[in-house]
């Protein structure tokens, strides 16, 4: 079976930005959830599975100065660097598989739209949760978006793990306090509707 990294490198080498199902010209839901946190502009933010997404563009435009972009695909990150031009030099770039990522620093906000739900094995899920616990500053935040129980069961040809609001909340309840959850419909470029579970959490003291 093709390994995960090869799968995603191939996706970003062969598909156009606006043809992938997760494309958003503006990540409205993520930006709304981030705005609710009223973060300082120097807050350390990491975007997990950022791909070619536009969150960094909007956060930079809003004055945030300490952004880290992580994706398994080096191809996707190179595309994003090219799009951002000179601004790309102000970001930290990490090519890594989130299921085995070991952060070297702590963050004030961990944002993940649609990376976590690709972790379908329990060991991967537990590694992710342990990484979360270890890499968020006290009082820091997590914004997590996955396909909901009403959403697709696969994405990009891969099986995913669906989460209801209750399931996501319970999963993080040991170390994080739930702040806000919503189910959001994402309309793909082809017009399909994908239902997401989006939640924000704050790390317990």
Short description:
With 205 residues, the chain is an alpha/beta fold. 30% of the residues lie in helices and 29% in strands. The protein has a seven-stranded mixed beta sheet with strand order 3-2-1-4-5-9-8, sandwiched between helices.
Write the layout of secondary structure elements.
Blueprint lengths: L3 H11 L13 H10 L7 E4 L6 H7 L5 E5 L2 H11 L7 E4 L11 E7 L8 H14 E12 L6 E2 L2 E2 L5 H8 L3 E12 L5 E11 L2
Parallel strand pairs: 1-2, 1-4, 2-3, 4-5
Antiparallel strand pairs: 5-9, 6-7, 8-9
Keywords:
Rossmann fold, 205 residues, 6 helices, alpha/beta, seven-stranded mixed beta sheet, 29% strand
Tell me what you see in this structure.
- This protein has helices at about 5-15, 30-35, 55-60, 75-85, 120-135, 165-170; strands at about 45-50, 65-70, 90-95, 105-115, 135-145, 155, 160, 175-185, 195-205.
- With about 200 residues, the chain is α/β, with parallel strands linked by helices.
- It has a single domain, classed as Rossmann fold (3-Layer(aba) Sandwich), CATH 3.40.50.150.
- The strands form two sheets. The protein has a seven-stranded mixed beta sheet, sandwiched between helices.
């Amino acid at each position: 079976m093709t390994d995960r990294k090869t799968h995603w490198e191939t996706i970003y080498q062969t598909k156009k930005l606006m043809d992938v199902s997760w494309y958003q010209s503006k990540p409205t839901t993520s930006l709304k959830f981030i705005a609710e946190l009223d973060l300082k502009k120097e807050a350390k933010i990491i975007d997990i599975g950022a791909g070619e997404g536009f969150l960094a563009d909007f956060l930079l435009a809003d004055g945030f100065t300490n952004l880290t972009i992580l994706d398994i695909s080096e191809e996707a990150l190179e595309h994003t660097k090219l799009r951002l031009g000179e601004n790309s030099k102000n970001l930290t770039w990490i090519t890594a598989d989130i299921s085995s990522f070991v952060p070297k620093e702590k963050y004030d906000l961990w944002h993940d739209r649609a990376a976590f739900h690709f972790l379908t094995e329990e060991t991967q899920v537990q590694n992710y949760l342990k990484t979360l616990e270890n890499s968020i500053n006290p009082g820091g935040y997590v914004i997590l978006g996955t396909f909901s129980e009403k959403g697709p069961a696969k994405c990009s040809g891969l099986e995913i793990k669906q989460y209801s609001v209750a399931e996501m909340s319970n999963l993080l309840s040991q170390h994080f306090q739930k702040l806000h959850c919503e189910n959001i419909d994402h309309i793909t470029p082809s017009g399909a509707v994908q239902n997401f579970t989006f939640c924000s959490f704050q790390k317990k003291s």
